[in-house]
Design brief:
The chain is an alpha/beta fold and 227 residues long. Helices cover 41% and strands 19% of the residues. It has an 8-stranded parallel sheet with strand order 7-6-5-4-3-2-1-8. Strand 5, helix 6 and strand 6 form a beta-alpha-beta unit. The longest helix has 20 residues. The radius of gyration is 17 Å and the shape is globular. The structure holds pyridoxal-5'-phosphate. The site of pyridoxal-5'-phosphate has 14 residues, from strand 8 and helix 9.
Length: 227
């Protein structure tokens, strides 16, 4: 494991990473367990996309950051059905839709609340007991039902490789995710145009970008190790 202990300012790190990114890659600052002061530094350095793992933590922060009307909030952590209602109201993007029932629940709520959240489907290409998500076979089987979730903008896949893979194995996971997105898009199911690939974290974002990521989710490399 790399050690992302703090060196340089948050603004320096953001600037350095931005220099290496193609223009189409959206940098999401993952601010779970990060102070409001550090988030403010990121905002001042130009970050307008923040990712949070937990609805409750995000709710407390959003309450303090109401003046940030130009920020897009991304939910990146596992969502329990009983928090789906809040999540739809708080997040423009939900990256962690990880099973059909949840997608259908969100679709219902989106209709009721007159919202149309951007959604990524979380996929698990290698077995990983610590992660949620569809296997390829499960996802392909669920596509017709997902296609009927008309109040969701299902536009991406999200993945997190298991810990402990070699670089080439990580690249394999990212490339397979990109291929899966292309396979889905080729089916031309209504409402399932998968253009976004949410993949890459502090340890592996360079490999993800090289494999076609359109959104990277960076925490520790910007803010330092979480305590
Ligand atoms: C915490 C988290 C990240 C950020 O991880 P870092 O290693 O801190 O960059 C990205 N994606 C998800 C889903 C996370 O839970």
């Amino acid at each position: 494991m790399s050690d992302f202990s703090r060196s340089g300012t948050i603004a320096d790190r953001i600037a350095q990473i931005r220099q290496t990114l193609p223009a189409n890659v959206r940098l999401i600052a993952v601010s779970k367990q990060v102070s409001i002061a550090a988030m403010q530094e990121a905002y001042d350095a130009g970050i307008r996309d923040f990712g949070e793992s937990r609805v409750q933590e995000a709710e407390a922060k959003q309450a303090q950051l109401r003046e940030w009307s130009d920020v897009t909030w991304h939910l990146i952590g596992h969502l329990q059905a009983n928090k789906a209602n809040k999540a739809i109201r708080m997040f423009e993007w939900i990256h962690s839709v990880d099973h059909l029932k949840l997608a259908q629940r969100l679709d219902q709520l989106a209709a009721q609340l007159d919202q149309s959240p951007q959604v990524c489907l979380q996929v698990k290409l290698l077995p990983d007991p610590n992660k949620f998500g569809w296997t390829i076979a499960e996802l392909l089987a669920d596509l017709p039902a997902l296609s009927e979730c008309q109040h969701l903008n299902i536009c991406g896949l999200m993945t997190i490789p298991p810990l402990g893979l070699s670089q080439s194995e990580v690249i394999g996971v990212f490339q397979q995710t990109r291929e899966l997105a292309a396979t889905i898009s080729r089916q031309q199911l209504p409402g399932l145009d998968i253009q976004e690939l949410s993949m890459g974290m502090s340890e592996d974002y360079a490999l993800a970008v090289q494999s076609g990521a359109t959104m990277i989710r960076l925490g520790r490399i910007l803010f330092g190790d979480r305590t």
